[in-house]
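Students often ask why inverse folding is considered easier than folding. One informal answer: many sequences map to the same fold, so there is more than one right answer. In these notes we will look at a single instance of the problem. The structure comes first.
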């Protein structure tokens, strides 16, 4: 009779061998870590504990009766990340190319159920050739089980997907339903149909990288929230993301040690925003002087640059920042920016992260491309998301807030809790020039030619002083105050402190119907 301890040791060694020396050597040649090495790099040292290492596929799978590999191509388990609990799975590309089968999916599903019960984040390290063809519908059913749990635990626990190799076909839909997708440049690919199929169907020639690489998905499609240059950087980004999020939807985000900006930060704010309403500037320079130094972590930093979405900290408290960026498309809202903002707002609201909105918006981007693309529907997503959010909502209007975009950017009318403006702010249906051109066109055209330019200038000045200033909104209670730029941080800190225990009741319903 064999020694039980030796038998266990042998089985553990077999499980750790994965697909064997040849496939491991190929992985090393590609410069990749093994599935277990990835998990050890992600979790705190010596904290990762594997579960289900001996699971294998059923013996009756087509053509696989003699290919039983412990673990079935995915390593699952739990541990600590920066001292906080989390579960994770890592697909093993040395075993059947990381392809998902019934047992493989069952391990992931079990892990997700554990996370849901324990109220802790789920992290998926994806590196897979897709569904395991030999298992047919059983593999497809496995994907369905994972998809169902992605939805079941959406908004319950944070779900992060790190793409470390191929992720194609139906496999992309699990990451797509998670809260964040991270990709590695030159190593990750995501696509529904590959270059060969596209070439056969449409005649288009495209490479794997151009079609579904990290650059494409972080700049064009908006699929990837963040990109990294290496696996190590990707794991560092995961740790940073989790530092802004609670373990689940009934907890508050962790509070860090507060760090105040430099002594000149408040005084510098007034000089950053130009007096001319159309002059560009970098909104990040404002944000960095208001929030805790070095706390800004942009989400979608390379997509829809006319809107900034980022995590940051205000006096140590995590906040979600949404801000117009006048440096890009004058800060207008378009289809991509609306989707980007809506997605981020809903993520923050799901996980109790207060929202801080910086407004300098001339309106929605005009044009047939936007109208035909459904800017009405997409713009409504951002409006809906802000209205639906029940976390503390703080809004600062810096320079201008025109038209419907004023309402959409977390105005008092859609539930803003603390709304303030700087003295130079302009709030109106449109700017003075547009108003004068519409309302006084006849009066100007009938004036002597030498008088027309001066008359237009006078009318614009009159309209600006009487109707564009923030005091009209403040008089009606649409603004809680008009403040000096230098007062911004202190006012926001005070408001967030008061609102930190905010609770809001909504009418009972199954769910709302956001205009998807």
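Output (designed amino acids):
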């Amino acid at each position: 009779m064999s020694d039980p301890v030796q038998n266990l040791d042998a089985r553990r060694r077999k499980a750790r061998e994965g697909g064997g020396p040849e496939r491991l050597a190929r992985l090393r040649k590609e410069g990749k870590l093994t599935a277990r090495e990835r998990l050890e790099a992600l979790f705190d040292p010596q904290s990762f504990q594997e579960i289900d290492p001996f699971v294998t596929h059923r013996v009756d799978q087509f053509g696989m009766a003699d290919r039983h590999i412990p673990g079935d191509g995915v390593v699952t388990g739990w541990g600590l990340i920066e001292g906080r609990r989390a579960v994770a799975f890592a697909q093993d590309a040395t075993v059947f190319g990381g392809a998902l089968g019934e047992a493989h999916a069952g391990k992931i599903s079990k892990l997700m159920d554990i996370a849901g019960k324990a109220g802790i984040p789920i992290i998926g390290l994806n590196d897979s050739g897709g569904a395991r063809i030999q298992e047919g519908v059983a593999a497809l059913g496995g994907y369905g089980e994972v998809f169902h749990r992605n939805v079941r635990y959406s908004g319950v626990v944070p779900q992060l997907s790190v793409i470390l190799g191929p992720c194609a076909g139906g496999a992309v839909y699990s990451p797509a339903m998670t809260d964040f997708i991270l990709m590695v440049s030159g190593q990750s690919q995501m696509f529904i149909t590959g270059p060969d199929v596209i070439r056969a169907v449409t005649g288009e020639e495209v490479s794997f990288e151009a079609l579904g690489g990290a650059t494409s998905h972080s700049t064009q499609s908006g699929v990837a929230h963040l990109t990294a240059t290496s696996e190590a950087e990707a794991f560092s980004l995961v740790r940073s993301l989790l530092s802004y999020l609670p373990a689940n939807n009934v907890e508050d985000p962790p509070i860090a040690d507060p760090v105040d900006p430099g002594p000149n930060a408040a005084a510098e704010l007034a000089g950053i925003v130009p007096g001319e309403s159309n002059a560009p500037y970098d909104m990040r320079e404002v944000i960095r002087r208001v929030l805790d130094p070095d706390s800004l972590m942009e989400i979608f930093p390379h997509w829809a640059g006319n809107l900034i979405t980022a995590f940051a900290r205000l006096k140590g408290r995590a906040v979600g920042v949404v801000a117009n960026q006048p440096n890009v498309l004058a800060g207008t809202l378009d289809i991509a920016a609306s989707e980007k903002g809506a997605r981020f707002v809903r993520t923050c609201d799901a996980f109790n992260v207060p929202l801080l909105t910086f407004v300098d918006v001339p309106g929605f981007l005009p044009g047939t491309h936007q109208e035909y693309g459904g800017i009405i529907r997409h713009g409504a997503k951002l409006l809906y998301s802000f209205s639906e959010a029940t976390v503390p909502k703080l809004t600062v209007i810096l320079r201008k807030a025109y038209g419907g975009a004023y309402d959409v950017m977390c105005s008092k009318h859609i539930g803003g809790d603390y709304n303030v403006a700087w003295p130079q702010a302009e709030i109106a249906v449109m700017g003075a020039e547009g108003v004068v051109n519409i309302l006084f066109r006849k009066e100007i055209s009938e004036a002597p030619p030498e008088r027309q330019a001066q008359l237009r200038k006078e009318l614009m000045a009159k309209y600006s002083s009487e109707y564009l200033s923030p005091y009209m909104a403040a008089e009606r209670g649409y603004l809680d105050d008009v403040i000096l730029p230098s007062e911004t941080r202190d006012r926001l800190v005070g408001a967030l402190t008061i609102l930190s225990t905010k609770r809001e009741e909504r009418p009972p319903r199954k769910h709302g119907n956001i205009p998807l």
